[in-house]
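Researcher: Checking consistency across runs. Here is Molybdenum cofactor biosynthesis protein F again:
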Amino acid sequence: MTQQNPKDWKTYDQFAYGIDTNRLPLTQALDGSSHTIHFDDGRTLSLAFSGQSVEWSDGGQSGKDTVEVVTVAPDTYFIEIAYAGKPLEAETVIINTATRRALSILSIVRPKEETVGEPQVGQIFRPGVLAGGVASGFVPAESRDLIGLRAHFTYSPNHVYEHTYLSSQRYAWQCLVGVQRGHGDVDLATTYKFAEGQYVFTFREFKIPVASTFFYNFDDLRSTGKFLGINGQGAIQNSNAGAFIRKASATFYLPGQDPV
């Protein structure tokens, strides 16, 4: 039996409108540069930046597509690539040009019939390093650091959400201000620590086909991210987002009673 969403549940495009108001601006810092990333699973991705375009090669494939770059921390860039030839996919690549560390998050809209009982939009995570030098510093890896944190995210005057990080696999959200006010849910989540005070937080929703990738900089209390999913008209939509972060509280667990 198909599970029905609650009454007045909003579609992706209804809640996403304006959610990029507090996003950090785009940068041209990588314009004219080229970078090759060797990922731990053997994949190699080469990127050459020119304005709002990037020429890429990935194994036997290559192309030129639209790119957006945001500086999210010193020497650290949030790179969003929308592949015109692969409309069901969008890739976020985080790189630090000083430490040469990298992390790719590939979001994929999958056929609904293949994802019964799980979110329709899946994600693949690939840590890696930039070629041409010796990598240093923290190695990006899955993290439990956010468990127990409750924080508020202000994306715009009309978009305020509360996040509670429940475990290494799930988080809870509720809308405090906006068209989703009063709505909330518990969804699948994955967190990677990228560097000290820097995390890549992702989640995949059950009730609507959408997944998100965010970079948290807790030194600046800023969040930069995107959503990929299916909007109310059935079209694929890749939307920017960004917020100011306010830490609200934290829960501390007794030994042996901490979440998974």
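Researcher: Does this match what you'd expect to see?
Model: One thing to look at in this run: Helices lie at 12-16.
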